[in-house]
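User: quick one, fold this
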Amino acid sequence: MPKKRITSLDVAKAAGVSRTTVSFVMNNVTRANISESTRSRVLEVAKTLNYHPNASGKKLASGKSLTIGLILQQSPTHVYADAFLLQVMVSIEQAVAPFGFHVLLKPINPDKPLAFHQLITENHVDGIILSGPRQDDTEVIQHFDEGFPIILMGQIEGSHIPFVDINAVEGAFTATQHLIDLGHTAIGIITNASLGYTSAQQRWQGYKNALERNGITPNPLFLQEGDYTPASGYEAMQRMLKNVPELTAVFVASDVVAVGAIQAIHQAGKRIPEDIAIIGFDDIPIAAHLTPPLSTIRLPALALGKIAGESIVHLILGETLDLQETLLDTSLVIRESTKGKSA
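Assistant:
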């Protein structure tokens, strides 16, 4: 039988440190914030186990910029409005900073040809975290297949790109089921973005799953697409109120978009939740302070950023990820914006 190859995980367990720490010590990343005692312990364990780092990781670590590109397929206006994304960004920075990396934030137009190529070649990033992938992102798939380190925050069906994501289908199902449990059957949905985005498709799917599970046939008139901003939620809610007068509840697949939807409901002279119940998605800090406080689906923003940050560092250094696909659970937060129709 061939002898088992020693990996950085073996060294990490024996030395009582993370795999990332082993990678930086073995690849001599001098800007990493690692104590001399920890460095010595890792080197001693590596010597004892006869561990040798991945050659591609050593090459990447020695001559690159220690910069990670955080790519947001949104306009700057959308990015500024996305309060959930801010929490994720902070968590990514905190995850990679102790090891000498910094994060370059880059909103891009998803329809711009060669956008990823330009970022990689002109800004000299060592790896990319892509937030909000689209199903037609052939360029990012090509770069990954050519060996460039990429982590998705989201998913591209049919690709082999590692991802960390929230279980949006389950979260949307839970939000819609909550409204059904309260007695609602005329339930609309306003998506967080256009249905060209994976995240919007997943939330739409969870909504449909809940309706069908309860014998309610999805109606296209009850669907409006948001576009990341409160203004898009306001306009979508206005259209829905006009097109669906029987509406009694709405699932808005983004708290930021829900801010505008709430305004439109108030301006139409309707009460929340007496006339229309509303539930959001994300649980951004302001959600608890809206009028009324917004029921929502809480996402693990800090865990999402931490795992994405740590994963891209491992890929940059040529390490194999323990998990190629990570789905994080959501939870229901009930506030005053939802209650039963007869309450």
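User: anything notable?
Assistant: The mean pLDDT is 87.
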